[in-house]
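Much of our argument rests on the idea that a fold can be written as discrete symbols. Part of our work consisted of pairing the sequence of a single chain with a tokenised description of its backbone. The amino acid sequence and the backbone structure tokens for this protein are reproduced below.
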Amino acid sequence: MSNLTHVFANGRALIPFITAGDPNLTTTEQLIAQMARAGADLIELGIPFSDSTAADPVVQKAESRAIIGGATLDKIFAMLRRLRQYCNVPIAFMSYLNPIFAYGTTRFMNNCREVAVCAVIVPDLPFEERDELLPDCRANDVSLIAMITLTSRDRIQKIAEQAQGFICCMTPPDAEPAAVKELINEVKRVKQIPCAVNAGCSAGDGVIAGSVIARLIEKYGPHSVPHVTEYVHHLKIALG
């Protein structure tokens, strides 16, 4: 599988999240390139989906804007082909199952390999059904990233044992820091694998920052690039 260990090799990794096509794919391309220059270690790129169940309404609005703007998987892959001519920052897709199945799993993963998307995160893929995607992931050197929550404790051992690359620890903004830290400790007692947490949490090997960036894009639209870049730069400094 793809090797993501270098992402976490130099202190806490910064993982900005943006929705592909919000507000348009030209801006998405610029955002990825500039966030990479500002210190992003891995960029999480959301695939817009009309029936998203994203917990964050800010992200749901971003997906709606991208869909209205005409973002499709073919156009997203075309944008990434352009980007890869000058930017090699690691990229992970965040996508629901439906867009992957509708596009064709083999075709989707083949294209991921072509544009050097090193991982996919699928929030509505049950752990027990990961074999729906694993063969094509393995064939194309794409890591299938596991997600856990504070309510996943009875399944942590199984999930951690088979995790690839890193684990996304998805916790609510009001989660107790001690509870998040213990969740990570439970993972690491099973397997020494990096754990990424939401921005604002002091634990974890990496920080996923999405809500603030989505609000900046909502506010500034195609003029959001310098504002997002500045935020990412300052966040990277704060992480040390």
Notes: Strands lie at 13-19, 43-46, 91-94, 117-121, 143-148, 167-169, 195-198, 206-209. The domain at 5-239 is CATH 3.20.20.70 (TIM Barrel). The two ends are 29 Å apart (CA to CA).
